[in-house]
Amino acid sequence: MTARPVLLVTGGSRGIGAAICIMAAQRGYDVAVNYQSNAEAAEKVVAACKAAGAKAIAIKGDMAKDADITRVFAEVAAALGPLSHVVNNAGITGPAGRLADADPQTIRTCIDVNVTGAILVAREAARALLANGAAKDRAIVNISSIAAGIGSADEFVWYAASKGAIDSLTIGLARELAPSGIRVNAVAPGMTETDIHAMSSGEPGRVARIAPTIPLKRAAQPEEIAEAVLFALSEASSYMIGSILRVGGGR
Ligand code: NAP
Question: What is the distance in A from the centroid of ligand 1 to the CA of 133?
Fold first, then answer.
């Protein structure tokens, strides 16, 4: 029997990350669900993964903190075996507003999670996947945003800049790991119906306000983003590396 692929999703307890975890479990992956604080949400995702026949665990850890990142990777390997796939998804915006009015701490916190944390997660993922040469297939998917290309003026240009960094990380790491047979890509979602708008950016009505400006006239459901991530994780995308896959409804 071939070993099941083992996937870690950072920020896997809610929104896009949760949809990725559940879809991956349905498609044969064992799944580690990382979360920062909402244990109940993480346990719900774990239960859904188990109901789909996967092994699954929830692991608490702040993906902006070096020690937490190292520990989370070690706990995944101890519980599920060597990692073969990682989705670098944890991300925040901070309260929306013009850059001139933004609190420096809002910017620092966003960059800590979305850039420094994501690069450290990618580093740990590279180390874990390089050490797992026995895996049939290995891949990393970074979650970017269409914000990297449109800049998010009047909302959170620091967040858009953080996702620009994710795109550069993806291109460079893909070239670095290609000779080792590890594929690295990014998925750049457009506006997606999750809690991020109310809880991180502080505007519960953001989806309703922006949806009419999207060519498809609606936000994405998290599962529509997860489909693209599952493609980028799978061998169906065997010749795709360093790609930024836009899933933005035309935006
Ligand atoms: P969300 O609904 O707010 O969920 C965020 C998830 O990340 C939760 O599981 C949360 O855990 C976790 N998280 C937050 N900070 C963390 C940290 N420091 N360490 C570990 N986990 C952390 O967000 P989402 O909308 O699904 O967004 C997911 C990714 O997609 C982000 O990178 C975001 O930038 C990107 N994206 C989203 C949209 C959109 O419109 N929704 C569009 C483009 C790109 P807790 O529940 O424990 O807090």
Answer: 30
Residue 88 in contact with ligand 1 by CB distance below 6 A: no
Q: How buried is 101 (Cβ within 10 angstroms: 0-12 exposed, 13-18 middle, 19+ buried)?
A: exposed
62 C-beta closer than 6 A to ligand 1: yes
Q: Does 29 participate in catalysis according to the annotation?
A: no
- Inform me whether the pLDDT recorded for 166 exceeds 60: yes
Q: Whose CA is nearest to atom 44 of ligand 1?
A: 145
Give per-residue pLDDT as tens, 22-75: 999 999 999 999 999 999 999 999 999 999 999 999 999 999 999 999 999 999
Whether residue 161 contacts residue 102, with contact meaning beta carbons closer than 8 Å, is answered with no
Pairing of strands 138-143, 6-9: unpaired
Domains of the chain: 6-247 (3.40.50.720)
Q: Whose CA is nearest to atom 10 of ligand 1?
A: 11
Residue 19 is predicted with a pLDDT of: 99
Taking the centre of ligand 1 as the mean of its atom positions, its distance from the CA of residue 176, in whole angstroms, is: 27
The pTM of the full predicted model, rounded to 2 decimals, is 0.98
Q: Yes or no: say if 239 and 185 are a contact pair by the CB < 8 Å rule.
A: no
